[in-house]
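quick one before i forget lol
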Amino acid sequence: MSTPRIVVTGVGATSPIGGTAPESWSALLGGASGTHTLEYDWVEKYQLPVTFAAEAKVRPDTVLERPIAKRLDPASQLALVAAMEAWADAGSPEVEPERLGVDFATGIGGVWTLLDAWDTLKEKGPRRVMPMTVPMLMPNAAAGNLSLHFGARAYARTVASACASSTESIINALEHLRAGYADVVIAGGTESAIHPITLAAFSSMQALSRRNDSPETASRPASIDRDGFVMGEGSGALILETEEHARARGARIYASVVGGGVTADSYHITANDPEGHGAARAVRMALEMADASPDDVTHVNAHATSTPVGDPNEYQALLTVFGDRVREIPTSATKASTGHLLGGTGALEAIFTVLALHERVAPPTINITEQDPEVPFLLSGQSQPLGPGDQLAISNSFGFGGHNAVAAFASV
């Protein structure tokens, strides 16, 4: 029995550079930055050392109907906005509920709901804590609410593997579809964690950029003067389905999802393996599932968070797989524009990878003042053409806890 081919038929995104996937893609190609100074009283109140972030450009509660938005944490609001767009983009597939699945990730979950409820408890007592608090804060809230909204009964699953979360969800969806347990899956991830406690905590770890005087240029992957990542917010959703199901309904196909690899470093709770063994294995696993070799890869969407240690570690991992050819593969480090969406970042970057294949162009990487010789990816401040012929791309995501996830996509 042959393995079914899995394709992408719809994309949706709400990101720091656009309220929809097309808006985000256009802004990315135009070299936009979604990072700005935060205009909240709590920034000064808590004397936060980092005063900027990359918030979602369009607030989700301005898109959703008010009664719906009130029952959802911002992370779930963003997920629903992105998934609704992706579903419409795919042509609202007609599929039996038992053949429709949801695989939607988050790195942190409903942090705003949790901490707002804690404030309410301290200030007003337990009777004023909302009954919906737990259903709003739980990490699987986005997946559960998407299942309810779209009537998905095949399964509804949540991955929480830090910054690798939503790439893992895409890989899980691929495996679920290949196994024949569903015909269509809504896959992706979401995050809304730009909160005083997370900014303070990441700052305490020395993980965030501190360019308060120039937030738009703070995220600068592979630049020799990079000093940390930028907190981002948003959600990305992809409609994955078997090629047979997609073609039977005459759907437009953006690209194929052809492979995925998931590994663990077992090295350190926050730092990735400096020799990149786990990341390299994840790349090899993705290519093996795709029945491809390293020489077939024509585009890389790098994890590239703009941290002093993480960027060269990723380069070393890919050097292990590709050899010196890694310097010749058109590569994009899109967090320069969007910041780091944590659990939502893999889904957004998967969308950018799919659109890069569909339009045959690698997006630019902004903010590089001088490229670090220890991170000599083929990056450019301008879009790079991918050319004619078959294209194969990988999108990398690595997370705290030693999680490594790599998804492979092919042109159609």
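fyi The radius of gyration is 20 Å.
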